[in-house]
From TrEMBL:
It comes from the Bacteria. The gene is fliM. NCBIfam families: fliM_switch. Pfam families: FliM (PF02154), FliMN_C (PF01052). It is a peripheral membrane protein. InterPro entries: CheC-like_sf, Flag_FliM, FliN-like_C, SpoA-like_sf. Residues 253-323 form the Flagellar motor switch protein FliN-like C-terminal domain. Keywords: Bacterial flagellum, Cell membrane, Cell projection, Chemotaxis, Cilium, Flagellar rotation, Flagellum, Membrane. Belongs to the FliM family. It is found in: Bacterial flagellum basal body; Cell membrane. This is Flagellar motor switch protein FliM.
Length: 332
């Protein structure tokens, strides 16, 4: 990787060269020396910056969906934003969360494996208090969940996971399903201690209560779709989806368009004097025989051929042939 200097560092380096404090030849010599970087095999890099950027975009959408969902359910001010997307060992994630927290363990077909939506107790109990008619405050002391509280939380977070489907639709069609709700991180084992995970941290504010919501996705779970997490693939997919949507809108509008359909018995030419002299019972000779098909126009194009008749006492035309290529007919 190439180190990028800030403007202040560049100015300081130029000043040092001008004053003689630094020697350009020495700097070149140092630059040619082999550089050694430390590498921690416990923190294996499995996700590129491109992958992390894609995960950030996906979960920014997820954060917006969650904001709308929780605002509707809790009927109070809710603000959720992505603050960080990183990769780290699973064991480090477990050690970073409280000993008593809300762990929503879920699966999302067609991905194989389990993921977790971890909600800080302050946020979870503020939601619970609001749903039970309170002001949405978090208790000073967090106790174990009662059976009723567990059912309420499973219901609200189970429905919240449905927003993942919309957030991930540009990459893969997911079917999230809450498997279980746990409160002790030691009882949750969705990956090995040294396995790399993608950790998406969402800052959450409900009324006056703040906390974090973390999404833990093991690398082995998203490994089959890693290629789809490239920015190029997502851009092409979004463009294709937009194109399909525009086509559907155009097709819907065209299907509702109204066009005149005219069945022509034939043509005839008469003078103005003859026209003014027409009376009831007069016969006008047309340019078509009685048994000859009628031209049926759709707009200005002849699209069908038919024969005249009646249906239940009303004039009608029966289509006998289709003109595949609409043609313009002369008035003669």
């Amino acid at each position: 990787m190439v180190d990028v200097l800030s403007q202040n560092e560049i100015d300081a380096l130029l000043a040092a060269l001008s004053s003689g404090e630094a020697d350009a030849e020495e700097l070149k010599k140092e630059d040619t020396q082999k550089k050694i970087r430390s590498y921690d095999f416990k923190r294996a890099t499995r996700l590129s910056k491109d992958h992390l950027r894609s995960l950030t975009r996906i979960h920014e959408n997820f954060a917006r969906y969650l904001t709308t969902y929780f605002s509707t359910q809790l009927r109070t001010f809710v603000q959720i934003n992505v603050v960080q997307v990183e990769q780290l060992p699973y064991d480090e994630f477990i050690r970073s969360i409280p000993k008593m927290t809300i762990l929503n363990i879920f699966e999302a077909e067609p991905l194989e494996g389990r993921m977790v939506l971890e909600v800080h107790p302050n946020i979870a109990f503020a939601m619970l208090d609001r749903l039970l008619g309170g002001l949405g405050t978090s208790p000073s002391r967090v106790n174990a969940l009662t059976e009723i509280e567990s059912i309420i939380m499973e219901r609200i977070f189970g429905r919240a996971l449905e927003s993942l489907k919309d957030a991930w639709k540009t990459v893969v069609d997911l079917e999230p399903r809450l498997e279980t709700l746990e409160t002790n991180p030691q009882f949750m084992q969705i990956a090995s201690a040294n396995d790399t995970i993608a950790l998406i941290s969402l800052s959450t504010k409900i009324g006056d209560t703040s906390g974090m919501i973390n999404i833990c996705i093991p690398h082995v779970v998203i490994e089959p779709i890693m290629q789809r997490l490239s920015v190029h693939h997502m851009f092409v997919t979004q463009k294709k989806a937009k194109s399909n949507e525009e086509s559907e809108i155009l097709q819907s509008r065209v299907s509702k368009a109204k066009l005149p359909i005219i069945a022509e018995l034939g043509h005839s030419r008469i003078t103005v004097r003859e026209f003014l002299g027409l009376a009831q019972g007069d016969v006008i000779t047309l340019n078509k025989l009685v048994g000859e098909g009628l031209a049926i126009r759709v707009g200005e194009k002849v699209k069908y051929v038919g024969i005249p008749g009646t249906v239940k006492g009303k004039a009608a035309v029966q289509i006998t042939d289709i003109v595949s290529e609409g043609v313009e007919e002369d008035d003669e």
